[in-house]
Amino acid sequence: MKDIFASLKSIASYIPPRCVSNADFEKTLDTSDEWISKRTGIKTRYFATPEQNTSDLAYEAGKLAIERAKLSPNDIDAVIVATLSPEYLTMPSTACIAAYKLGIQNKPAFDISGACSGFIYLLNVAKSFIESRTYDNILIIGAEKVSSVLDFEDRGTCVLFGDGGGAAVVSATTDRSQSILDVHIAANGKYGDLLYTPRFNATSNSPKQYLQMKGNEVFKQAVKTLAQDVKDILEHNAIRPQDVKFFVPHQANLRIINAVGEMLDFSPDQIVLTVQKYGNTSAASIPMAIDEIYKQGKLKNGDLLLLDAFGGGFTWGSALVYFNGENLQ
Ligand code: COA
Fold first, then answer.
1. What is the pLDDT of residues 42-85, one digit of tens each?
2. What's the CATH code, domain 1-329?
3. Looking at ligand 1, which residue's alpha carbon is closest to its atom 47?
């Protein structure tokens, strides 16, 4: 029997319609375009409309990912969504709602909670399902309406995030040189109180109804952890930074990305940056960034991608992935 490998068959994203600039925040907050740009790199972010929910963002990205994989909804064996802003508190899962909207019924659908590392966690889960021959085609989606958990009076958090959806189809292949080569994920709950959303069982007088973050401490841990994680995955697979076509980091903060990029000696044309446009879209940020280079016609079949992410939990992870999708015509 031939070996089976998981591969990234397609990539897609959905950007919601409401563009909010730093200047827009200047009208309601004690902040400035200069502060936000200098500390984060962010210039704009996009928010969903009040009518749009997380499953709508997931649906839009998921639909395009299925089309680009040249598949129909019937071919999808499972739908898995990563989100920190699910449509309902615990049920139904955003994956159940999105799968139904996509016309995928009577197939497994579930959410995972990996915060901003969600897409790397999804890759690992999908890879395991495929390589254990459980399924052939899995739709994975990072979808976030982070704006629904933001405190728009907290200048330390609300300017950092954006909404969006990013999706991919992961399919079986027999060609290892077209595969998701390696995925590493990890977590340490010790740091849970540095970045979190409201408790499920919060008392009615709980003051913490929104996302809370100790930005400075998150920043330091993120740089340290990611630099090591990325080094480890490259070494483990005997791949040099110059062998990587694109380094696609989680888009949280330009200074975190540059710090990790410089430690690894990546050249500027290897590093994919979308944080200026979209802000931090949590679990959607990596697939949105991959789709950005795909839409620009830069990402080609066979290109090697290095992904990394860090988020609440803390969670983190990295992946080495050969893109196995069709080139954009
Ligand atoms: N506009 C103007 N001033 C702001 C501000 C804003 N939007 N947000 C915070 N400040 C102020 C603070 O109140 C503080 O003022 P003080 O010195 O008078 O107390 C000052 O700026 C410095 O705050 P600090 O938090 O130390 O700044 P920083 O250089 O660490 O930058 C972040 C803040 C949030 C940009 C930065 O810590 C960061 O990006 N952290 C990581 C966040 C992240 O990536 N999280 C998600 C991980 S997935």
1. 999 999 999 999 999 999 999 999 999 999 999 999 999 999 99
2. 3.40.47.10
3. 311
Ligand 1 pocket, 39 CB below 6 A?
yes
Q: Which residues of 38-73 are buried (b: 16+ CB within 10 A; e: fewer)?
A: eebbbbebbbbeeebbbbbbbbbbbbbbbebbebeb
* pTM of the entire predicted model: 0.97
Whole-number Å distance, alpha carbon 203 to ligand 1 midpoint, is: 28
Give the up-direction half-sphere exposure of residue 126: CA atoms within 13 A in the CB hemisphere: 36
Cis omega (within 30 of 0) on the bond before 314? yes
Confidence bin at 1 (pLDDT 50/70/90): confident
- Using DSSP's 3-state secondary structure scheme, residue 264 falls into coil
The response to whether residue 215 sits with its C-beta less than 6 Å from ligand 1 reads yes
Per-domain boundaries in the chain: 1-329
What's the number of CA atoms in the CB half-sphere (13 Å) around residue 307?
34
Q: Contact at 8 Å (CB) between 199 and 212?
A: no
